[in-house]
Amino acid sequence: MNAKEAEYVVFDVETTGLSAVGGDRMVEIAAVKVKERKIIDTFESFINPERPIPIEAQKVNNITEDMLKDAPTRDIVLPKMLDFIGGACVAGHNVKFDLNFLCLELSLIGRRLHDDTPAVDTLKLARRFIPHLTSHRLSNVAHFLGTPIEETHRALADVKLTVDILNCLLDMAAEQKIETLGDVFKEFGVDKPKFKIKQAEQEMLF
């Protein structure tokens, strides 16, 4: 399948911190479904992490504990996210970070991503095709590519920005004869973390 015609679910999470295995948890998840380069569906939800949110995290993502007090918990949100992904390829900017949180918290509710769900990282794409940038942060890549930047550090805004970047970088890949989804995954894919249910239950002790 041509990579530019494939179906992607581009997603992003906001969290209480940087370490899923260290006890941090998601507070927001957003995703868009992209087919033939166009957004065809959107998924977005706050997630009550059932633990305090450090002030430092609130300053980064502008999500307060008050905003989450009535939000659904992961056992409600994440099955819907799995349904939203379906058989699509997942993608994101530094997507391994987001996958660590998604996969660990899925395991906490006894679920997991399908084994055959590919994951593509736009950070890897950017480092290959825009190597001269001093930083490949999402905003820097967007600025170089001329992509309009709106609100950042909120999940849905970052996702929509990532879609534009993905489309541009797939064009660059095609110019280098990296054209099929298999080729793109081989060059720019990431392995999904796997957490056993028993390990996940131990993480709940944090």
Written description of the protein model:
With 206 residues, the protein is of the alpha/beta class. The protein has one domain (3-192): Nucleotidyltransferase, domain 5 (2-Layer Sandwich), CATH 3.30.420. Helices cover 43% and strands 17% of the residues. It contains 9 helices and 5 strands, in the order βββαααβαβααααα. Strands 3-2-1-4-5 form a 5-stranded mixed β-sheet, sandwiched between helices. The longest helix is centred in the last third of the chain and has 21 residues, at 155-175. The model has no long low-confidence stretch (mean pLDDT 94).
**CA distance, first residue to last residue:** 43 Å
Q: Low-confidence runs (pLDDT<50, min 5 residues)? A: none
Question: What would you say the CATH architecture is?
Answer: 2-Layer Sandwich
- Rg (CA only): 17 Å
Q: State the secondary-structure class.
A: alpha/beta
The CATH topology assignment is: Nucleotidyltransferase, domain 5
Largest sheet: 5 strands, mixed
Largest sheet strand order: 3-2-1-4-5
CATH class label? Alpha Beta
Overall mean pLDDT score? Answer: 94
